[in-house]
Amino acid sequence: MNLKNALRAATALALVTGSAATAETITIATVNNGDMIRMQGYTDKFTEATGIDVEWVTLEENVLRQRVTTDITTKGGQFDIMTIGMYETPIWGANGWLVPLDDLSEEYDVDDILPAMRSGLSHDGTLYAAPFYGESSMVMYRTDLMEKAGLEMPEAPTWEFIREAAAAMTDRENDINGICLRGKAGWGEGGAFITVTANSFGARWFDEDWNAQFDQPEWANALNFYVDLMNNYGPPGYATNGFNENLSLFQQGKCGMWIDATVAASFVTNPNDSTVADSVGFALAPNAEGVDKKANWLWAWALAIPAGTQKEDAAKQFIEWATSKEYIQLVAENEGWANVPPGARTSLYETPEYQEVPFAKMTLDSINAADPTNPTVDPVPYVGIQFVAIPEFAGIATEVSQEFSAAYAGQQTVEEALEKAQAITTEAMEAAGY
Amino acid sequence: MARSVTTQRKILNTAAAWAIGLLIFFPILWTILTSFKTEAEAIASPPIFLNFDWTLENYAIVQERSNYMRFLWNSVIIAGGSTVLGIIIAVPAAWSMAFVPSKRTKDILMWMLSTKMLPAVGVLYPIYLLCIQLGVLDNRLAMVVILMLINLPIIVWMLYTYFREIPGEILEAARMDGATLKEELLYILTPMAVPGIASTLLLNFILAWNEAFWTLNLTSVDAAPLTAFIASYSSPEGLFFAKLSAASTMAIAPILILGWFSQKQLVRGLTFGAVK
C-alpha cells in the first residue's frame, strides 16, 4: 500500500514539474563552426530573458543541408529555425517555404544589415533570413616571406602579381609553397573557388539565355591559369585540398599566400593555433589584367524560419536576439572584439574598437566589392557569385567540380575537363527545362 | 596428429598477426591519441605520435557542450531494440527456410538480400513522408523498427547459414519424442545455435550502432543517437580535429568494450560450422 502511495505521489509530482517545465522550446538546426558554437554558449541568456528554451541540433554542413532540405520540402516540421546560406535562401523564399522577416522590431534596425548581405538573403525585396555572420574571400599572405622576396603586396593585386609573388616565395627545400588554393571537388569547396576565379577572368556560367559557357575562351584562360599556378607553386596534392587542409598548411607556415574565406583571418592570426600569427597581411582578392571583377565571393550563414512552424513568434524573438547589435556587444564584452560574428552589420564596422582589429577593414572592403546580382563582366540571368541561385546548381556544379579536380590531379587535360563540364551542364539544364 | 610447428615459424606467425592487427587498429588508436592533443598538435606536420602534452581539455569541452548520456541512451535503445526485435522475427523465418525449404526458398533469400542493394537515399523521401504521416519523426520506436527492417535480411541470412549446419535429424528425433514446434524451436534448436545467434546479435548490434544514414536523417533531438553526436563535431570550415576525435572516442568506447568482452563469442560464431 505504501509503495502504491509513494508511486502515486511520484507520478503526481512528475506531472506537476513536467507541466511547469513545458515552457516553449524551439529547435534550431545549425552548423558546427566557431561563431555558432559560441552562440550556443550564450543561449542561457536568451532563455533567462524570454523564458523560451532552445534545443540545438548541430550537424556537419553537408549533412545539415541534406537534413533541412528534406525537412522543408516535405514539411516535416522538425525545426523552428534553420541555419541556411545565401544559396538556399532566395530559392526557398521564392517557393514560399520560409516565413518572411518583414515585421522585425524597430530596435532590431534591419537597415543596419550590410546591403550586400541583405540583397543576397532576399527574394523580390523581402528578407527571408537574418545574417548571423557573413564572409567574402581575400588574400592572406605572409608579410615576412613577402619582404624576403623583395616584393610589396598592393591593396588590390592582379593575378599576374600573385603569380610573380608565388614564384618568388616558393621554397621547395624549406617546404614553403608560394600559394595554397582550394582544389577539392564539391560546389561549395573547389567549385566555389574556381567560379570566382572565372568571374575575375570575365567568364560566366551561363549567358542570358541559360546556355552553358564553358566553351568560351574566358573559362579556358581561368582554368589554365589556375592549373599552371598551382602545378608550379602550389602544394603537392592540391586537387584534394579544401578550406581545412589549406588552413592547416597556412597555420604551419607552409604557404606564402592563401586566398580564401575572410573568416579564416581570425584563425590564422590566433597565436594559440597558428605558428605565423604575427606575420599575416591581407589584400583584396585578385583580378585578371583589364577585368574589373575580383575573385571574391559572398556568403552568409543566416537564420530562417520554415513556413508552417507552430512557434513562429518564439523563433522570431530568437532570431532578433541572435543577430542583434546587443548580441555582438555581449560577445565583445566577454571574448573581445576579434571574436564577434563578422560581416553582418554596418554598425559593427563603425565601432572604433572593431576598426582596430587587423582584418576588419579588408573584410568589409571585400564584402562591399561583391555584388551577387552582377557577379561577372557580362550580364547573367542569375543571382549569386560563387554559385548560381537555381535549384539545379548544386548537382551540376558538384559534377563539374569533380571534372575540374580530375584535371588538377593530372588525370585529364583542362580542355577535356571543360568539354565535359559543357556537356554535363548543357544536358542538365535541358533536362530541367531551361 | 597435429602438424609440428617450429618455434621460429611460431614467432613469425605471431609477429605477422600482430602487425596486421595493429595496422587495422591504427586509425582507431590515432583517433584516441588525437583526442588527447591540443588542436594545434592535432594538425601538426610531421604528426606527433606520443610526445605531446596530454590533455583532457577536449573531453571537458565535449562534455560541456553536449549531453552525451542522452545520445548514448538513444544508441543503446535503438541498436539494442532493433537487434532483439530482428532476432525474434528472424529465428522462425530462418528455421523454416533451413529445415522445411520450399521450391522458392532460395529465391526468397535472394530477394530479401536484394533489398540491401538499393542505396538508402533512394527511399529517403518515401520513408520521411511515411514518418510524417504517422507522426513518428524523431521517435526512438520508429528508429528501432526502421533499423530492424534494414538489418533483417542480414540477420535472416546469418541465422539461415548457422541453422543449416545443425543436422535436421536431431530436430526430427525431438519431434518423434513428442516435442511441439514451439518446444522444438525453444529447447532444441536455439540452444544448439547459441553461438550463431550470439554472433548474429553482436554483429547486428554493431551495425545498428554505427548506422549513420537513417539515424542522422530521421532524428533531431529526442531520438538522436551517438552518430548525430559525432556529426555535430565535424566541420568543413574550422579545424576541430581534437574535439572531433574526443567525441568519436566517446561514441565508439561502449561498442569497443563490448567487442572486447565478447571477442570469444564473436570469433566462435563467425567460424561456427567451419570446423566439425
Automatic annotation (TrEMBL), chain A:
The keyword Transcription regulation belongs to this UniProt entry's keyword annotation: no
SUPFAM superfamilies in UniProt: Periplasmic binding protein-like II
UniProt cross-references to Pfam families, sorted A to Z: SBP_bac_1 (PF01547)
Signal peptide: 1-23
Keywords: Signal
A GO CC term assigned to this protein in UniProt: periplasmic space
Cell compartments where the protein resides: Periplasm
Record-stated family: Belongs to the bacterial solute-binding protein 1 family.
Protein name in the entry: Bacterial extracellular solute-binding protein
Species annotation: Pseudoruegeria aquimaris
Lineage per the UniProt record: Bacteria, Pseudomonadati, Pseudomonadota, Alphaproteobacteria, Rhodobacterales
TrEMBL record, chain B:
Keyword terms of this UniProt record: Cell membrane, Membrane, Transmembrane, Transmembrane helix, Transport
InterPro entries xrefs: BP-dep_ABC_trans_perm, MetI-like, MetI-like_sf
Membrane topology listed for this record: Multi-pass membrane protein
Location of the ABC transmembrane type-1 domain: 72-262
Pfam families: BPD_transp_1
SUPFAM superfamilies xrefs: MetI-like
A cellular-component GO term for this protein: plasma membrane
Sequence similarity: Belongs to the binding-protein-dependent transport system permease family.
Name of this protein: Inner membrane ABC transporter permease protein YcjP
